[in-house]
Design a protein that fits this description.
The chain is of the alpha+beta class. The protein has helices spanning about 1-75, 85-90, 95-100, 110, 155-165, 175-180, 225-230; strands spanning about 125-135, 140-145, 195-200, 205-210. Strand 1 and strand 2 form a beta hairpin. It holds the Pfam family Kunitz_BPTI. It is found in: Secreted. GO terms for molecular function: serine-type endopeptidase inhibitor activity. It comes from Spodoptera littoralis (Egyptian cotton leafworm).
């Protein structure tokens, strides 16, 4: 009986010791896990703080750069804005009267409006040429009489079209009677029918035509007297050289 009690006591002590060891192991495991978790959290937090510090440092550098740029701009000398160019002084000067009166100084915008010149200026045989008719918008054949300044004159129909098809409609300004009295009569762009007079360079007299009321050119007069007084002395035929 006594021996049984001793054995029971020993078993109890052994069981308690085993429980105590397990408890110690569990505590150790928990301590290690807590330590590992805590270390990981602290490491993550430290990394975040380092990143924030880097970003703040970058922003500080950017602000420093901006301050330097502003300082540089402030120290740069102030220059006056460029002066506005006076458009009136840069515009092309109007041609002189000598230039406006010089028949050789123009281009097809003017020449394609000229009348076909069949006036005979020599005893030479007439030549067959083409001129641009501004009313028909076509190149028409005519007989050339060897007069100087016969500019609306071409050897072939194709050459005539190439020169005048896109040029005849341009408005012509700043020309003298020596030029516009040679223009073909131009009906204009509106729809009225006003009796007017133009100077015919072949017959050297004024003839009637209808004017629409707008557009046209300056070879247009309200009466025959004005037409003759302006153009009969302005247009002179001379033989070509």
């Amino acid at each position: 009986m006594f021996l049984g009690c001793i054995i029971h006591s020993l078993l109890t002590v052994i069981s308690f010791t085993a429980i105590q060891l397990r408890a110690n192991e569990t505590t150790t495991d928990l301590d290690e896990k807590y330590t590992a978790d805590t270390t990981a959290k602290l490491t993550t937090k430290a990394t975040e703080l380092t990143t924030e510090a880097t970003e703040l440092n970058t922003e500080a550098n950017e602000l420093t750069t901006e301050d330097m740029e502003l300082t540089t701009e402030a120290t740069e000398p102030v220059t006056d804005p460029p002066e506005k160019v006076n458009e009136e002084t840069t515009q092309t000067k109007p041609p002189s009267r000598a230039q406006m009166d010089d028949l050789t100084s123009f281009d097809d915008k003017v020449y394609c409006k000229f009348q076909a010149n069949s006036y005979s200026c020599s005893n030479a045989r007439l030549k067959r040429k083409y001129y641009y008719d501004i009313q028909l918008n076509q190149c028409i054949r005519f007989d050339y009489g060897h007069c100087k300044h016969s500019y609306n004159m071409f050897d072939g129909r194709r050459e005539c079209f190439d020169a005048c098809e896109d040029e005849y409609s341009h408005q012509v300004i700043n020309v003298t009677a020596n030029v516009y009295c040679r223009f073909q009569p131009d009906f204009g762009d509106c729809h009225m029918y006003n009796p007017m007079w133009y100077f015919d360079i072949i017959d050297m007299r004024c003839k009637g035509f209808s004017y629409s009321g707008c557009g046209g050119n300056d070879n247009r007069f309200r009466n025959v007297e004005k037409c003759l007084s302006v153009c009969s002395h302005a247009v002179k035929h001379t033989e070509e050289e």
